[in-house]
């Protein structure tokens, strides 16, 4: 039956916004030095026509991550994502369905994927646009729909996820395990007060003064100890190369030594690491040996390692030999680049992955569904970043704050793209000004996705 809270799309507007990075960031072995934000505004109306509202969404077009250079040259992949963004806006504007955003997303995503296929052919791309690329590109549209839905109905969008708002239960979107269940059972009605922040230690980042040929002197920290002290950090995400075991092990040990010395000065005795190989390990044996060498060299560093993120190639079907069962017995192994839908979720579980990385850049609808799926199957959950500044980080923080089992959030735009946060620090100081190692998500309670902008 139709719901009175359902929304129809009246109009859609968009723009692009480019920002240079403060320092280069290495993604899967490829340095990048700027980002392009795709900003979307969607005007909607409730079913009875009595209420209208505008929802907003924003996300970087992270082509180096979503459509890597090994598939297509940088300029070509970015141009393709920008063109897909424009076409997806037009398709959304022409959508006549009146429904919940989750149901709108279910209808729109196949159309977006068809646009990407056609675009790949028409632009003669070196490789077809991957599904990950499509969901990243169109994620601001999905966010704007969820935001508009809440605003039009005078509620926070996370309060519109139960059976009073969505006709089909989760078995329609997932499988029979979720019969009779709805997303409100896997999300919180109030955000967590605060969430620990994972600070990124990139493969190119200086650890100490001796690693800096010439300081930037721009008022921000430049070495790892400076960041830890300035932001009160207790969680570090370590980017690794995946093709040089000696370097990867030495990097973790160096970071652990420097961090231990710095935390001792602060009187802090508990902190955590995650390790991200960005799918560069040739096989799981590399990961197993990495873990073994860390444990043998420094037991404390091994204990501080909370989880491993996507160690091997994202194409799970092409590499069924990369089973993660043995590694997952040692530490949670989290699926990231591979996760684009429930099918890949199930395949990742079958191949031994024990955790899921949720990303706002894959869409609000998918993040909510995969969060429910992970909780339903008892898997480890993390919320990861795409160097999201401004509105896109608010979106990510909102997800982390509302999904109960998420215990920390990554956020690195403040390191690599601080200029894009200008103004946002004043509007949301607890989110963007980190002083005690946490993101103050208690403020994300407004109508829509929880923030007015």
Account of the protein in words:
Helix 2 packs across helix 3, helix 3 runs antiparallel to helix 4 and helix 7 crosses helix 8. The chain is globular and about 65 Å long. Strands 4, 5, 6, 7, 8, 9, 10, 11 and 12 form a nine-stranded mixed β-sheet that branches. Strands 1-2-3 form a three-stranded antiparallel β-sheet. Helix 7 links the parallel strand 5 and strand 6. The longest helix has 22 residues. 38% of the residues lie in helices and 19% in strands.
Structural domain tally? 2
Output the CATH topology of the largest domain: TIM Barrel
Structural class computed from helices and strand pairing: alpha/beta
CATH superfamily of the largest domain: Enolase-like C-terminal domain
Q: Radius of gyration from the CA trace?
A: 21 Å
- CATH secondary-structure class of the largest domain: Alpha Beta
Q: What is the correct CATH architecture of the largest domain?
A: Alpha-Beta Barrel
Main beta sheet strand tally, sense and closure:
9 strands, mixed
